[in-house]
Specification:
This protein is mainly beta. It has helices spanning 24-27, 33-36, 45-48, 142-145, 176-180, 193-200, 225-230, 280-285, 394-401; strands at residues 14-16, 20-21, 80-81, 91-94, 112-114, 127-132, 138-141, 151-158, 183-192, 208-213, 220-224, 233-238, 241-242, 252-254, 267-273, 305-310, 321-330, 336-342, 350-351, 353-354, 364-372, 377-385, 423-426, 432-435. The longest helix is centred in the middle third of the chain and has 8 residues, at 193-200. The protein binds ligand MTE and molybdenum atom.
Length: 437
């Protein structure tokens, strides 16, 4: 225990092996940790007055721009591109989740997947058509939609292929961004789809909706009508501003908790039908194969998942002492109920602090205080959602779902919907490796 901690509060309370502390230590504010962290350099009296005056404190600053961008010192906080030339193949842009905090992904950093590029859509000419098995086919301009009552909801969008490198038979040494960066969370605002469906008058026999985008591939997916009525939204705003072009400007379908691909961007058509269309993206790309050779017919929900973002691969620890373990948990089924963290590779676990309000189908931040003793160790996390579903342990997950035959390219999709654990091995020098436990 450090000298400065003496008398500053209750003694540190360990809840699991290798230095995991009770989450109460975080909630209690700075008292317990005021001295215990010991990472702030002590201020020596002489240096305090006068404060140093660096160059930027001696003259007026820059002109205010109409549109802000991050500090030039944050220039490395960018997405990584799978196809930087943007040729005819799909383009993935992965979000730098290990460099972000909280639960909202800034719009410029929200992941994107574009199967045929970003169409340059003029909102004055774009229309959404609702037709098929309805009483009255309807067409909506963007302006018309903007007059409807709207809702605002915080939800993640995650590609079914996110975390696919985790199917590798050996752990791929890569950042959270490379492993899990096809997932992001935003506050979306738009018109509940049920409003529009009621207006068109859906035939009770129409139990599917085929959603189609206005990009050149006309990406389309079949959506169960029940989901369309439950909580689907025609999203027009993303974190308070109109959608980013790459995220579906001027409007997208938002199906909270359902695999990213179904959230059709540049939405131009919803057709009510009585059977699924079995489109390219649902019959080929997003139907994961099982070890026995069978494939899922549909795999809609992104199940409960968590991973530690800090510390993680690429950011080594600078010596023993106190760290806050910080990570993301989310579930397409509902709210995150609890997250356990282990600092001994899964032998013992402590319950992490969860920051509220906890929204259903949204990123949820967990935090865990930890005192590293400087010896090699493995950090990992495991989440539960409100339905009682839990992240499967890796051995069970791989037994049920299979693994890639050989080490895949980190950008490849050897399979879909990985939701088992992610573990970070820390060696005595503080260097972090991706490991399996
Ligand atoms: N029209 C259209 N919708 C689309 C796509 C697309 O290429 N075109 N990509 C899909 C895929 S594969 C995913 S994972 C999500 C990603 O949403 P985001 O780019 O807003 O993160 O959008 C889906 N909707
Ligand atoms: Mo996707």
């Amino acid at each position: 225990m450090s000298r400065r901690q003496r008398g500053d509060g209750p003694p540190l309370e360990f809840v699991a092996g290798n230095g995991l502390l009770h989450r109460r230590a975080l909630l209690g504010g700075g008292i317990v940790f005021a001295g215990a962290f010991g990472s702030g350099a002590p201020l020596t009296g002489a240096a305090a007055e006068p404060l140093q005056e660096p160059e930027w404190s001696l003259m007026p600053g820059d002109v205010t721009p109409v549109l802000q961008k991050p500090s030039r010192f944050e220039a490395n906080v960018v997405r990584t591109l799978s196809n930087p030339k943007g040729d005819a193949r799909t383009q993935h842009a992965r979000a730098p989740l290990q460099m972000l905090e909280g639960t909202i992904t800034p719009n410029a950093l929200h992941f994107t997947i574009l199967h045929s590029g970003i169409p340059d859509i003029d909102p004055a000419q774009h229309v959404l058509v609702i037709h098929g098995m309805v009483k009255q086919p309807l067409e909506y301009s963007v302006d018309a939609l903007l007059r409807y009552p709207m809702v605002t909801r915080k939800h993640f969008v995650e590609c079914g292929g996110n975390s696919a490198p985790m199917f590798s038979p050996v752990p791929i040494q890569a950042t959270v961004q490379a492993l899990h960066g096809l997932s992001s969370c935003a506050e979306w605002t738009g018109v509940p789809l049920s409003t529009l469906l009621d207006e068109a008058g859906v035939d009770p026999k129409a139990i599917w909706l085929i959603a189609e985008g206005a990009d050149s591939l006309a990406v389309s997916r079949s959506v169960p009508m029940k989901k369309a009525y439950d909580d689907a939204m025609i999203a027009l705003y993303q974190n308070g501003e109109r959608l980013m072009p790459g995220n579906g400007y001027p409007m997208r379908l938002l199906l909270p908790g359902y695999e990213g691909n179904m959230n059709i961007k540049f939405l131009r058509r919803l057709k009510a039908v009585d059977q699924p269309a079995m489109t390219y993206y649902e019959s080929r790309n997003y139907s994961p194969l099982l070890p026995g050779g069978k494939a899922y017919k549909f795999y809609f929900v992104n199940e409960v998942k968590s991973f530690i973002t800090r510390p993680s691969f690429g950011c080594s620890l600078s010596g023993p002492g106190f760290y806050e373990i910080s990570g993301l948990a989310y579930s397409g089924t509902g709210r995150i109920d609890k997250v356990l963290v282990s600092a001994d590779g899964g032998k013992s676990w402590g319950e992490a602090a969860i920051e509220g309000p906890v929204c259903p189908r949204a990123f949820t931040r967990f935090r865990m205080p930890w005192r590293w003793d400087g010896r090699p160790t493995v950090l990992t996390s495991r989440a539960w959602d409100e339905s009682g579903a839990v992240q499967p342990l890796r051995a069970d997950f791989i037994a049920a779902r299979g693994e890639a035959k050989k080490v895949p390219n980190v950008l490849g999709f050897p399979n879909q919907h990985y939701n088992s654990l992610t573990s970070w091995g820390i060696d005595a020098s503080g260097e972090i490796k991706h490991v399996y436990v």
